[in-house]
Amino acid sequence: MGSRDHLFAAAALLLLPLFSSNPDDERCLTHLSQSLSDPLKSLHNWSATTFTSPCDGSTSFLSGATCNNGRISNLFLSNLSLTGSIPPHLSNCTALQSLDLSSNALSGPIPPDLGSLLYLAALNLSSNAFSGPIPAQLGLLVRLSAFDVSGNRLSGPVPASLGNRTGNLARFNASSFDGNKGLYGYPLPLPNKSGFPGLAIVGIGLGSGLVSLMLSFIVVCVWLRVTEQRSENDEER
Ligand SMILES: *[C@@H]1O[C@H](CO)[C@@H](O)[C@H](O)[C@H]1NC(C)=O
Ligand SMILES: *[C@@H]1O[C@H](CO)[C@@H](O)[C@H](O)[C@H]1NC(C)=O
Ligand SMILES: *[C@@H]1O[C@H](CO)[C@@H](O)[C@H](O)[C@H]1NC(C)=O
Ligand SMILES: *[C@@H]1O[C@H](CO)[C@@H](O)[C@H](O)[C@H]1NC(C)=O
Ligand SMILES: *[C@@H]1O[C@H](CO)[C@@H](O)[C@H](O)[C@H]1NC(C)=O
Ligand SMILES: *[C@@H]1O[C@H](CO)[C@@H](O)[C@H](O)[C@H]1NC(C)=O
């Protein structure tokens, strides 16, 4: 090796740590890109080789991602016609401060694992097709100050850990939860009682059906008994 080669080797060693690789971010991005389908090819430069070192300090090599101290800190993937779902491994992006997947066509559940993203301050999943409950674990996110799951297909009660936060935690009003037919509880109204008349009508229908069935059964029994007695009488004669 000549001295020039030594120089190159030294330079390469010096440069290496700048292109920080992080196994957690790599796992997170790998799973995320596998779970998303990207028909408009907006994430054209999301490749496995980039996932090994997606950041150089605060420079990001991935469209839609920003970096801080060599870690993925924000994912802004709004309005890209994305389909697919959120992988639980998104929680491996442990330095994530904001996640915006709004206005896509994403579906499936919201993984409870997101409750372990300690630095998450903004979560926007609005205008998608997410279903299932809102995980109560999201209430563990003490830094969360912007939260939006409006316009999805979520159902069940709004967890008190999110709907009715206390102390220094940011509070969220109904606009964070609106537009999910199956969702109820503070700050949304309580379960819709209008379901009951419908049930009652079905009940009345079933009940009256049963009553008429029993009535016709009794009529048939009585008729059988009467004819039986008649034929007995006939035989006695
Ligand atoms: C990926 O795309 C983004 C924006 O489209 C750009 O800023 C970034 O430099 C690209 N990265 C590479 C490695 O091509
Ligand atoms: C969403 O993207 C489409 C193009 O794909 C654009 O026409 C539209 O204005 C965007 N909407 C918002 C709210 O940015
Ligand atoms: C990555 O995320 C998955 C799913 O939440 C979790 O089971 C796993 O422990 C995480 N890995 C690390 C190294 O934190
Ligand atoms: C979430 O994103 C939508 C656009 O997709 C925006 O209109 C809305 O204000 C955002 N919500 C919050 C809480 O920032
Ligand atoms: C919200 O929390 C406060 C304090 O914990 C409690 O007094 C109140 O009843 C709760 N409101 C609702 C609608 O759950
Ligand atoms: C609900 O909260 C949002 C901020 O998250 C705010 O912009 C909006 O004015 C609030 N709406 C009401 C009715 O308080």
Outline the structure in words:
The strands form 3 sheets. The chain has a 6-stranded mixed beta sheet. A 5-stranded mixed beta sheet has the order 4-5-7-9-11, with no helix packed on it. The chain folds into 2 domains: 3-192, Ribonuclease Inhibitor (Leucine-rich repeat, LRR (right-handed beta-alpha superhelix), Alpha-Beta Horseshoe); 193-237. The radius of gyration is 31 Å and the shape is elongated. It has helices at 3-15, 23-35, 48-52, 160-163, 195-236, and strands at 36-37, 55-56, 59-60, 65-68, 71-76, 83-84, 98-100, 105-108, 122-124, 129-132, 146-148, 153-157, 182-184. The protein has 237 residues and is α/β, with parallel strands linked by helices. It is built from 5 helices and 13 strands. Bound molecules: 2-acetamido-2-deoxy-beta-D-glucopyranose (6 copies). One 2-acetamido-2-deoxy-beta-D-glucopyranose (NAG) is lined by residues 45, 50, 61, 63.
Q: Estimate what percentage of residues fall within beta strands.
A: 15-25%
Radius of gyration: 31 Å
Work out the helix count.
Answer: 5
Low-confidence stretches: 10-14
Shape: elongated
Largest sheet: 6 strands, mixed
Task: Give me the secondary-structure category.
Answer: alpha/beta
Order of strands across the main sheet: 1-6-8-10-12-13
Helix content: 25-40%
Bound molecules: 2-acetamido-2-deoxy-beta-D-glucopyranose
Give the rounded overall mean pLDDT.
Answer: 85
Report the CATH architecture of the largest domain. Alpha-Beta Horseshoe
The CATH class assignment of the largest domain is Alpha Beta
Q: What order do the helices and strands follow?
A: HHEHEEEEEEEEEEEHEH
Per DSSP E runs of 2 or more residues, the count of β-strands stands at 13
Number of domains: 2
CATH homologous superfamily grouping of the largest domain: Ribonuclease Inhibitor
CATH topology of the largest domain: Leucine-rich repeat, LRR (right-handed beta-alpha superhelix)
The CA-CA distance between the termini, in Å, is 131 Å
Signal peptide: 1-21
Transmembrane segments: 199-224
Protein name: LRR receptor-like serine/threonine-protein kinase EFR
InterPro entries: Leu-rich_rpt, LRR_dom_sf, PRK1-6/SRF4-like
